[in-house]
Amino acid sequence: MSRHLEISIDRQSRIPIAQQTRDAIRRMIEEDMLQPETRLPSSRRLGMDLGVSRSVVVEAYEQLIAEGYLVARRGSGTSVAPSVRPPRESVLAAPQRPVAARWDLRTGGCDASWFPRQEWVRCLTAVISAAGPSELGYATPAGPPAVRQAAAGYLSRVRGVRARADRVMMTAGFAQGLALLCAVLRERGHEVVAVEDPGHPGERQFMSRAGLRPVGVPVDADGLVVDELYRTGARAVVVTPACQFPTGVPLAAHRKAELVEWAHRVDGFVIEDDFESAFVAAADRAPALQSLAPDRVVYAGSASKVLAPALRLGWLVVPSPLMPGLEFVRSSRDFGCSGLEQLAFARFLETGGFDRHLRRVRDEVRKRREQVRDDALRLLPGVRPIGAASGLQTYLELPAGCDEAALLRAAQARSVLVHGAQFYRINRAVQPGAVVVSYATVHRPGLSRAMAALGIAYREVCTGPPVRHHRGGKSMRTGLGAHAVDPARELRVPVTASPPLGPRVVRPG
Ligand SMILES: Cc1ncc(COP(=O)(O)O)c(C=O)c1O
Protein backbone atom coordinates (compact mmCIF):
# COMPACT_ATOMS: atom_id res chain seq x y z
CA MET A 1 0.00 0.00 0.00
CA SER A 2 1.23 3.50 -0.72
CA ARG A 3 1.50 6.02 2.12
CA HIS A 4 -0.13 9.36 2.29
CA LEU A 5 2.52 12.08 2.31
CA GLU A 6 2.13 15.10 4.56
CA ILE A 7 3.72 17.90 2.54
CA SER A 8 3.05 21.62 2.99
CA ILE A 9 3.26 23.80 -0.08
CA ASP A 10 3.78 27.53 0.24
CA ARG A 11 2.04 29.08 -2.73
CA GLN A 12 3.45 32.52 -1.97
CA SER A 13 7.01 31.25 -2.10
CA ARG A 14 9.23 32.00 -5.04
CA ILE A 15 10.45 28.42 -4.88
CA PRO A 16 8.67 26.44 -7.63
CA ILE A 17 6.12 23.94 -6.31
CA ALA A 18 7.86 21.00 -7.99
CA GLN A 19 11.03 21.95 -6.14
CA GLN A 20 9.20 22.31 -2.82
CA THR A 21 7.69 18.86 -3.34
CA ARG A 22 11.02 17.33 -4.29
CA ASP A 23 12.83 18.93 -1.32
CA ALA A 24 10.16 17.80 1.12
CA ILE A 25 10.32 14.17 -0.07
CA ARG A 26 14.11 14.16 -0.15
CA ARG A 27 14.21 15.45 3.40
CA MET A 28 11.72 12.84 4.61
CA ILE A 29 13.95 10.15 3.16
CA GLU A 30 17.13 11.62 4.61
CA GLU A 31 15.58 11.90 8.03
CA ASP A 32 14.24 8.35 7.93
CA MET A 33 10.64 9.52 7.97
CA LEU A 34 10.23 7.49 4.79
CA GLN A 35 11.86 4.09 5.03
CA PRO A 36 13.53 2.28 2.11
CA GLU A 37 11.07 0.60 -0.24
CA THR A 38 8.10 2.60 1.03
CA ARG A 39 5.68 2.99 -1.83
CA LEU A 40 4.73 6.57 -2.66
CA PRO A 41 1.32 7.74 -3.81
CA SER A 42 0.81 7.91 -7.55
CA SER A 43 1.64 11.25 -9.12
CA ARG A 44 -2.06 11.76 -9.81
CA ARG A 45 -3.03 11.01 -6.17
CA LEU A 46 -0.31 13.23 -4.69
CA GLY A 47 -1.13 15.99 -7.16
CA MET A 48 -4.74 15.88 -5.99
CA ASP A 49 -3.74 15.84 -2.31
CA LEU A 50 -1.48 18.86 -2.82
CA GLY A 51 -3.87 20.66 -5.14
CA VAL A 52 -1.29 20.81 -7.93
CA SER A 53 -1.17 19.36 -11.39
CA ARG A 54 0.08 15.83 -11.89
CA SER A 55 2.99 17.07 -14.02
CA VAL A 56 4.39 18.96 -11.02
CA VAL A 57 4.61 15.73 -9.03
CA VAL A 58 5.99 13.83 -12.03
CA GLU A 59 8.75 16.41 -12.28
CA ALA A 60 9.58 16.08 -8.57
CA TYR A 61 9.58 12.26 -8.72
CA GLU A 62 11.75 12.21 -11.86
CA GLN A 63 14.34 14.41 -10.26
CA LEU A 64 14.45 12.23 -7.14
CA ILE A 65 14.75 9.11 -9.29
CA ALA A 66 17.67 10.73 -11.04
CA GLU A 67 19.25 11.51 -7.67
CA GLY A 68 18.84 7.89 -6.55
CA TYR A 69 16.32 8.58 -3.80
CA LEU A 70 13.37 6.93 -5.57
CA VAL A 71 12.91 4.03 -7.92
CA ALA A 72 10.08 3.53 -10.39
CA ARG A 73 9.03 0.04 -11.47
CA ARG A 74 6.53 -0.70 -14.14
CA GLY A 75 3.35 -1.94 -12.56
CA SER A 76 4.36 -1.15 -8.98
CA GLY A 77 4.64 2.62 -9.02
CA THR A 78 7.28 4.75 -7.33
CA SER A 79 9.02 3.77 -4.09
CA VAL A 80 11.87 4.91 -1.91
CA ALA A 81 15.07 3.28 -3.17
CA PRO A 82 16.06 0.11 -1.23
CA SER A 83 19.29 1.64 0.01
CA VAL A 84 19.40 5.37 -0.09
CA ARG A 85 22.98 6.49 0.43
CA PRO A 86 24.65 5.81 3.79
CA PRO A 87 22.65 7.14 6.74
CA ARG A 88 23.68 10.65 7.63
CA GLU A 89 25.41 11.12 10.92
CA SER A 90 23.12 11.99 13.75
CA VAL A 91 23.84 15.59 14.59
CA LEU A 92 22.65 14.96 18.12
CA ALA A 93 25.07 12.18 18.79
CA ALA A 94 27.97 12.49 16.40
CA PRO A 95 30.33 15.34 15.66
CA GLN A 96 29.52 17.30 12.57
CA ARG A 97 31.81 16.63 9.68
CA PRO A 98 34.80 18.94 9.98
CA VAL A 99 34.83 21.57 7.24
CA ALA A 100 37.80 23.82 6.76
CA ALA A 101 36.78 27.19 8.09
CA ARG A 102 38.25 29.60 10.54
CA TRP A 103 35.13 30.19 12.60
CA ASP A 104 32.60 27.48 13.31
CA LEU A 105 29.43 29.18 14.52
CA ARG A 106 27.20 26.18 13.97
CA THR A 107 25.11 25.08 16.91
CA GLY A 108 26.04 21.94 18.79
CA GLY A 109 29.32 22.88 20.38
CA CYS A 110 30.43 23.75 23.85
CA ASP A 111 33.47 25.56 25.13
CA ALA A 112 36.06 23.07 26.36
CA SER A 113 37.80 25.81 28.31
CA TRP A 114 34.74 26.05 30.59
CA PHE A 115 35.09 22.56 31.96
CA PRO A 116 35.97 22.92 35.67
CA ARG A 117 38.87 20.50 35.54
CA GLN A 118 40.30 21.06 39.03
CA GLU A 119 36.97 20.86 40.82
CA TRP A 120 35.93 17.82 38.84
CA VAL A 121 39.17 16.03 39.60
CA ARG A 122 38.71 16.87 43.30
CA CYS A 123 35.18 15.46 43.32
CA LEU A 124 36.16 12.34 41.41
CA THR A 125 39.19 11.76 43.61
CA ALA A 126 37.12 12.11 46.78
CA VAL A 127 34.53 9.68 45.43
CA ILE A 128 37.08 7.10 44.36
CA SER A 129 39.00 7.35 47.62
CA ALA A 130 35.86 6.74 49.65
CA ALA A 131 34.26 4.14 47.37
CA GLY A 132 33.34 0.88 49.08
CA PRO A 133 31.96 -2.32 47.60
CA SER A 134 28.54 -0.84 46.88
CA GLU A 135 29.92 2.21 45.03
CA LEU A 136 32.25 -0.04 43.04
CA GLY A 137 29.59 -2.63 42.32
CA TYR A 138 26.49 -2.51 40.14
CA ALA A 139 23.96 0.15 41.04
CA THR A 140 20.38 -0.05 39.83
CA PRO A 141 20.29 0.93 36.15
CA ALA A 142 18.55 4.19 37.12
CA GLY A 143 21.67 5.23 39.03
CA PRO A 144 23.02 5.06 42.60
CA PRO A 145 20.38 6.13 45.15
CA ALA A 146 22.60 8.94 46.47
CA VAL A 147 22.93 10.40 42.98
CA ARG A 148 19.20 10.23 42.26
CA GLN A 149 18.58 11.90 45.61
CA ALA A 150 21.07 14.69 44.89
CA ALA A 151 19.64 15.25 41.40
CA ALA A 152 16.06 15.36 42.75
CA GLY A 153 17.09 17.92 45.38
CA TYR A 154 18.93 20.08 42.88
CA LEU A 155 16.17 20.04 40.27
CA SER A 156 13.51 20.87 42.85
CA ARG A 157 15.57 23.77 44.16
CA VAL A 158 16.72 25.22 40.87
CA ARG A 159 14.04 24.28 38.31
CA GLY A 160 11.01 23.79 40.54
CA VAL A 161 10.79 20.19 39.28
CA ARG A 162 8.50 18.01 41.38
CA ALA A 163 11.10 15.31 41.78
CA ARG A 164 11.42 12.33 44.07
CA ALA A 165 14.54 10.21 43.97
CA ASP A 166 12.61 7.12 42.88
CA ARG A 167 11.36 8.94 39.78
CA VAL A 168 14.83 10.03 38.69
CA MET A 169 16.71 8.01 36.12
CA MET A 170 20.30 8.96 35.35
CA THR A 171 21.18 8.51 31.68
CA ALA A 172 24.08 8.79 29.28
CA GLY A 173 22.88 12.23 28.18
CA PHE A 174 19.60 13.38 26.70
CA ALA A 175 20.19 11.21 23.65
CA GLN A 176 20.00 8.01 25.66
CA GLY A 177 17.03 9.30 27.63
CA LEU A 178 15.21 10.03 24.38
CA ALA A 179 16.06 6.63 22.93
CA LEU A 180 14.72 4.91 26.06
CA LEU A 181 11.57 7.00 26.06
CA CYS A 182 10.96 6.24 22.38
CA ALA A 183 11.23 2.54 23.12
CA VAL A 184 8.73 2.87 25.96
CA LEU A 185 6.33 4.85 23.81
CA ARG A 186 6.54 2.19 21.10
CA GLU A 187 5.77 -0.47 23.70
CA ARG A 188 2.73 1.54 24.69
CA GLY A 189 1.46 1.62 21.12
CA HIS A 190 2.58 5.10 20.02
CA GLU A 191 3.47 5.41 16.34
CA VAL A 192 3.82 9.16 16.01
CA VAL A 193 5.62 11.72 18.09
CA ALA A 194 5.22 15.45 17.63
CA VAL A 195 8.25 17.73 17.53
CA GLU A 196 8.80 21.45 17.24
CA ASP A 197 9.34 22.83 13.75
CA PRO A 198 12.00 24.24 13.64
CA GLY A 199 13.82 21.83 15.89
CA HIS A 200 16.79 19.54 16.06
CA PRO A 201 17.14 17.26 13.02
CA GLY A 202 19.18 14.73 15.00
CA GLU A 203 16.36 14.30 17.44
CA ARG A 204 14.02 13.42 14.59
CA GLN A 205 16.47 10.80 13.37
CA PHE A 206 16.52 9.20 16.78
CA MET A 207 12.80 8.93 16.77
CA SER A 208 12.60 7.48 13.29
CA ARG A 209 15.21 4.92 14.12
CA ALA A 210 13.26 3.96 17.20
CA GLY A 211 10.27 3.26 14.96
CA LEU A 212 8.31 6.44 15.70
CA ARG A 213 7.27 8.91 13.05
CA PRO A 214 8.18 12.52 13.98
CA VAL A 215 5.59 15.07 12.91
CA GLY A 216 6.38 18.78 12.97
CA VAL A 217 4.29 21.34 14.80
CA PRO A 218 4.97 25.01 14.11
CA VAL A 219 6.43 27.41 16.61
CA ASP A 220 5.41 31.06 16.79
CA ALA A 221 6.25 33.99 19.02
CA ASP A 222 4.68 32.16 22.00
CA GLY A 223 6.40 28.85 21.33
CA LEU A 224 4.76 25.61 20.20
CA VAL A 225 1.35 26.17 18.60
CA VAL A 226 -0.60 23.72 20.73
CA ASP A 227 -3.77 23.95 18.61
CA GLU A 228 -1.82 22.39 15.77
CA LEU A 229 -0.79 19.52 17.99
CA TYR A 230 -4.31 18.13 17.99
CA ARG A 231 -4.14 17.69 14.22
CA THR A 232 -1.11 15.41 14.35
CA GLY A 233 -2.78 12.48 16.07
CA ALA A 234 0.30 12.23 18.29
CA ARG A 235 -0.02 11.48 21.98
CA ALA A 236 3.54 12.44 22.80
CA VAL A 237 5.49 15.58 22.03
CA VAL A 238 9.07 16.72 22.63
CA VAL A 239 9.41 20.41 23.47
CA THR A 240 12.02 22.88 24.67
CA PRO A 241 9.85 25.21 26.79
CA ALA A 242 12.57 27.17 28.58
CA CYS A 243 14.05 28.42 25.32
CA GLN A 244 12.83 26.88 22.13
CA PHE A 245 15.61 25.34 20.13
CA PRO A 246 16.80 27.03 17.95
CA THR A 247 14.67 30.20 18.02
CA GLY A 248 15.09 30.96 21.73
CA VAL A 249 11.40 31.72 22.16
CA PRO A 250 10.13 30.75 25.63
CA LEU A 251 6.85 28.86 25.81
CA ALA A 252 4.25 31.39 26.95
CA ALA A 253 2.29 30.71 30.13
CA HIS A 254 -0.99 30.29 28.25
CA ARG A 255 0.63 27.77 25.91
CA LYS A 256 1.99 25.82 28.86
CA ALA A 257 -1.53 25.54 30.23
CA GLU A 258 -2.82 24.47 26.80
CA LEU A 259 -0.06 21.89 26.47
CA VAL A 260 -0.84 20.33 29.82
CA GLU A 261 -4.52 20.26 28.91
CA TRP A 262 -3.65 18.60 25.60
CA ALA A 263 -1.67 15.90 27.41
CA HIS A 264 -4.61 15.17 29.69
CA ARG A 265 -7.12 15.18 26.86
CA VAL A 266 -5.23 12.81 24.62
CA ASP A 267 -3.95 10.73 27.55
CA GLY A 268 -0.46 11.55 26.38
CA PHE A 269 2.95 12.74 27.52
CA VAL A 270 5.13 15.77 27.06
CA ILE A 271 8.90 15.32 27.02
CA GLU A 272 10.45 18.53 28.29
CA ASP A 273 13.98 18.90 26.93
CA ASP A 274 15.51 21.38 29.37
CA PHE A 275 19.09 21.09 28.14
CA GLU A 276 19.69 24.83 27.75
CA SER A 277 17.70 26.28 30.61
CA ALA A 278 20.86 27.13 32.54
CA PHE A 279 21.48 29.81 29.94
CA VAL A 280 18.17 31.61 30.24
CA ALA A 281 18.68 35.10 31.68
CA ALA A 282 17.53 35.32 35.30
CA ALA A 283 14.69 37.71 34.48
CA ASP A 284 13.20 35.26 31.96
CA ARG A 285 13.68 32.07 33.97
CA ALA A 286 10.44 30.22 34.76
CA PRO A 287 9.99 26.94 36.63
CA ALA A 288 10.08 23.81 34.50
CA LEU A 289 6.88 22.84 32.71
CA GLN A 290 7.04 19.57 34.64
CA SER A 291 6.11 21.44 37.83
CA LEU A 292 2.64 22.03 36.35
CA ALA A 293 1.91 18.39 35.57
CA PRO A 294 4.39 15.88 36.99
CA ASP A 295 2.04 13.06 35.98
CA ARG A 296 2.15 14.07 32.30
CA VAL A 297 5.55 15.63 31.74
CA VAL A 298 8.86 13.80 31.53
CA TYR A 299 11.57 16.23 32.52
CA ALA A 300 14.91 15.70 30.71
CA GLY A 301 18.19 17.42 31.51
CA SER A 302 21.78 17.08 30.38
CA ALA A 303 25.29 17.98 31.52
CA SER A 304 26.47 18.39 27.94
CA LYS A 305 26.15 22.17 27.70
CA VAL A 306 26.86 23.03 31.32
CA LEU A 307 29.84 20.72 31.81
CA ALA A 308 30.94 18.63 28.84
CA PRO A 309 29.30 16.28 26.34
CA ALA A 310 32.10 13.78 26.97
CA LEU A 311 30.71 13.03 30.42
CA ARG A 312 27.59 11.54 28.76
CA LEU A 313 25.53 12.51 31.73
CA GLY A 314 21.85 13.30 31.78
CA TRP A 315 18.76 12.73 33.89
CA LEU A 316 15.07 12.10 33.53
CA VAL A 317 12.31 12.76 36.03
CA VAL A 318 9.57 10.41 35.01
CA PRO A 319 5.80 10.31 35.66
CA SER A 320 4.95 7.25 37.72
CA PRO A 321 3.00 5.42 34.98
CA LEU A 322 6.07 5.44 32.73
CA MET A 323 8.70 4.51 35.31
CA PRO A 324 8.25 0.70 35.40
CA GLY A 325 8.34 0.48 31.59
CA LEU A 326 11.40 2.69 31.47
CA GLU A 327 13.21 0.63 34.09
CA PHE A 328 12.35 -2.52 32.20
CA VAL A 329 13.62 -1.16 28.86
CA ARG A 330 16.75 0.17 30.54
CA SER A 331 17.60 -3.08 32.27
CA SER A 332 17.19 -4.97 29.03
CA ARG A 333 19.75 -2.69 27.35
CA ASP A 334 22.43 -1.88 29.91
CA PHE A 335 23.27 -1.87 33.59
CA GLY A 336 23.39 1.88 33.86
CA CYS A 337 26.19 4.38 33.27
CA SER A 338 29.37 5.00 35.25
CA GLY A 339 28.40 5.18 38.92
CA LEU A 340 31.68 6.86 39.84
CA GLU A 341 31.16 9.75 37.40
CA GLN A 342 27.61 10.13 38.63
CA LEU A 343 28.78 10.19 42.24
CA ALA A 344 31.34 12.86 41.33
CA PHE A 345 28.51 14.88 39.80
CA ALA A 346 26.40 14.45 42.95
CA ARG A 347 29.32 15.69 45.02
CA PHE A 348 29.78 18.64 42.69
CA LEU A 349 26.12 19.52 43.18
CA GLU A 350 26.16 19.11 46.93
CA THR A 351 29.34 21.05 47.60
CA GLY A 352 28.01 24.07 45.68
CA GLY A 353 30.70 23.66 43.02
CA PHE A 354 28.12 23.38 40.26
CA ASP A 355 26.37 26.60 41.29
CA ARG A 356 29.70 28.46 41.33
CA HIS A 357 30.65 27.01 37.96
CA LEU A 358 27.32 28.04 36.41
CA ARG A 359 27.66 31.60 37.68
CA ARG A 360 31.00 31.93 35.91
CA VAL A 361 29.85 30.37 32.67
CA ARG A 362 26.57 32.28 32.54
CA ASP A 363 28.36 35.54 32.84
CA GLU A 364 30.57 34.74 29.87
CA VAL A 365 27.60 33.45 27.85
CA ARG A 366 25.71 36.68 28.54
CA LYS A 367 28.64 38.78 27.32
CA ARG A 368 28.98 36.74 24.14
CA ARG A 369 25.24 36.88 23.49
CA GLU A 370 25.12 40.64 23.89
CA GLN A 371 28.14 41.06 21.67
CA VAL A 372 26.67 38.89 18.90
CA ARG A 373 23.37 40.71 19.09
CA ASP A 374 25.01 44.13 18.94
CA ASP A 375 27.29 43.06 16.09
CA ALA A 376 24.34 41.59 14.23
CA LEU A 377 22.30 44.77 14.47
CA ARG A 378 25.27 46.87 13.40
CA LEU A 379 26.85 44.67 10.73
CA LEU A 380 23.82 42.89 9.29
CA PRO A 381 21.31 45.73 8.98
CA GLY A 382 17.82 44.38 8.44
CA VAL A 383 18.20 41.10 10.32
CA ARG A 384 16.02 40.63 13.34
CA PRO A 385 17.15 38.70 16.41
CA ILE A 386 14.33 36.48 17.65
CA GLY A 387 13.73 34.97 21.06
CA ALA A 388 14.62 35.79 24.62
CA ALA A 389 18.07 36.31 26.11
CA SER A 390 18.71 32.62 26.39
CA GLY A 391 20.61 29.63 25.15
CA LEU A 392 23.90 29.50 23.31
CA GLN A 393 22.86 30.88 19.92
CA THR A 394 21.07 33.76 18.31
CA TYR A 395 18.42 33.21 15.67
CA LEU A 396 18.69 36.06 13.19
CA GLU A 397 15.71 36.31 10.91
CA LEU A 398 16.59 37.57 7.45
CA PRO A 399 14.71 40.33 5.68
CA ALA A 400 12.54 39.53 2.68
CA GLY A 401 14.56 38.95 -0.46
CA CYS A 402 17.68 37.76 1.32
CA ASP A 403 18.58 34.31 0.01
CA GLU A 404 19.53 32.13 2.96
CA ALA A 405 21.41 29.48 1.00
CA ALA A 406 23.42 32.11 -0.88
CA LEU A 407 24.26 33.83 2.39
CA LEU A 408 25.52 30.60 3.95
CA ARG A 409 27.71 29.97 0.91
CA ALA A 410 29.07 33.50 0.99
CA ALA A 411 29.77 33.15 4.71
CA GLN A 412 31.63 29.90 4.16
CA ALA A 413 33.67 31.54 1.43
CA ARG A 414 34.71 34.00 4.15
CA SER A 415 35.55 31.14 6.49
CA VAL A 416 32.46 31.35 8.68
CA LEU A 417 30.27 28.28 9.16
CA VAL A 418 26.69 28.87 10.22
CA HIS A 419 23.47 26.97 9.88
CA GLY A 420 20.39 28.54 8.33
CA ALA A 421 16.76 28.04 9.30
CA GLN A 422 16.45 25.31 6.66
CA PHE A 423 18.77 23.06 8.64
CA TYR A 424 16.27 22.93 11.48
CA ARG A 425 12.97 22.99 9.63
CA ILE A 426 10.74 20.15 8.62
CA ASN A 427 8.45 22.32 6.56
CA ARG A 428 11.00 23.94 4.33
CA ALA A 429 8.47 26.01 2.48
CA VAL A 430 8.27 28.33 5.49
CA GLN A 431 9.88 31.72 5.09
CA PRO A 432 11.72 33.93 5.97
CA GLY A 433 15.18 32.51 6.15
CA ALA A 434 17.51 32.95 9.11
CA VAL A 435 21.07 32.47 10.18
CA VAL A 436 21.61 30.86 13.54
CA VAL A 437 24.81 32.05 15.17
CA SER A 438 26.18 29.91 17.99
CA TYR A 439 28.48 31.62 20.45
CA ALA A 440 29.21 28.45 22.37
CA THR A 441 32.72 27.74 21.14
CA VAL A 442 34.33 30.90 19.78
CA HIS A 443 35.73 33.42 22.25
CA ARG A 444 34.71 37.06 22.13
CA PRO A 445 37.60 38.42 20.03
CA GLY A 446 37.05 35.64 17.49
CA LEU A 447 33.32 36.27 17.53
CA SER A 448 33.92 39.90 16.59
CA ARG A 449 36.00 38.88 13.60
CA ALA A 450 33.57 36.17 12.59
CA MET A 451 30.61 38.56 12.77
CA ALA A 452 32.53 41.11 10.70
CA ALA A 453 33.16 38.44 8.05
CA LEU A 454 29.50 37.39 8.20
CA GLY A 455 28.54 41.05 7.80
CA ILE A 456 30.57 41.27 4.59
CA ALA A 457 28.94 38.12 3.26
CA TYR A 458 25.55 39.59 4.17
CA ARG A 459 26.23 42.81 2.29
CA GLU A 460 27.35 40.81 -0.73
CA VAL A 461 24.18 38.73 -0.82
CA CYS A 462 21.41 40.69 0.83
CA THR A 463 21.65 43.87 -1.14
CA GLY A 464 17.94 44.49 -1.68
CA PRO A 465 16.11 47.53 -0.36
CA PRO A 466 17.02 47.91 3.30
CA VAL A 467 15.12 46.39 6.20
CA ARG A 468 11.97 45.21 4.54
CA HIS A 469 10.70 42.54 6.90
CA HIS A 470 8.06 39.95 6.17
CA ARG A 471 5.22 42.01 7.59
CA GLY A 472 1.65 40.94 7.81
CA GLY A 473 -0.17 37.83 6.70
CA LYS A 474 1.79 34.81 6.03
CA SER A 475 5.36 35.86 5.84
CA MET A 476 5.55 37.74 9.04
CA ARG A 477 4.62 34.67 11.01
CA THR A 478 7.02 32.63 9.08
CA GLY A 479 10.23 33.02 10.94
CA LEU A 480 8.58 31.18 13.76
CA GLY A 481 6.71 28.55 11.81
CA ALA A 482 3.78 28.44 9.49
CA HIS A 483 1.36 29.80 12.00
CA ALA A 484 -0.23 33.19 11.75
CA VAL A 485 1.18 35.65 14.26
CA ASP A 486 -0.44 39.00 14.47
CA PRO A 487 1.85 42.02 14.44
CA ALA A 488 1.13 42.93 18.03
CA ARG A 489 2.19 39.51 19.23
CA GLU A 490 5.24 39.46 17.11
CA LEU A 491 6.40 42.72 18.54
CA ARG A 492 6.26 41.19 21.97
CA VAL A 493 9.15 38.93 21.07
CA PRO A 494 12.06 40.53 22.86
CA VAL A 495 14.64 41.66 20.38
CA THR A 496 17.60 39.90 21.88
CA ALA A 497 19.58 36.78 21.29
CA SER A 498 18.33 33.20 21.35
CA PRO A 499 19.68 29.55 21.87
CA PRO A 500 21.97 26.44 20.44
CA LEU A 501 22.69 22.50 20.20
CA GLY A 502 24.94 19.33 19.70
CA PRO A 503 28.63 18.59 19.45
CA ARG A 504 31.50 19.56 17.05
CA VAL A 505 34.84 21.11 16.23
CA VAL A 506 36.03 23.95 18.39
CA ARG A 507 37.87 26.75 16.65
CA PRO A 508 38.63 29.58 18.98
CA GLY A 509 38.94 32.76 16.97
C1 LIG B 1 17.95 19.78 21.22
C2 LIG B 1 19.00 19.14 22.08
N1 LIG B 1 18.62 18.56 23.21
C3 LIG B 1 19.52 17.99 24.04
C4 LIG B 1 20.86 17.99 23.75
C5 LIG B 1 21.84 17.33 24.68
O1 LIG B 1 22.11 16.03 24.23
P1 LIG B 1 23.09 15.09 25.04
O2 LIG B 1 22.74 15.23 26.49
O3 LIG B 1 22.80 13.70 24.55
O4 LIG B 1 24.48 15.50 24.77
C6 LIG B 1 21.31 18.57 22.58
C7 LIG B 1 22.74 18.58 22.27
O5 LIG B 1 23.23 19.30 21.49
C8 LIG B 1 20.35 19.16 21.74
O6 LIG B 1 20.72 19.76 20.61
From TrEMBL:
Keywords: DNA-binding, Pyridoxal phosphate, Transcription, Transcription regulation. The keyword Lyase does not apply. PROSITE patterns: HTH_GNTR. Gene3D superfamilies: Type I PLP-dependent aspartate aminotransferase-like (Major domain), Winged helix-like DNA-binding domain superfamily/Winged helix DNA-binding domain. In the C-terminal section; belongs to the class-I pyridoxal-phosphate-dependent aminotransferase family. Transmembrane segments: none annotated. This is GntR family transcriptional regulator. Residues 15-83 form the HTH gntR-type domain. It comes from the Bacteria.
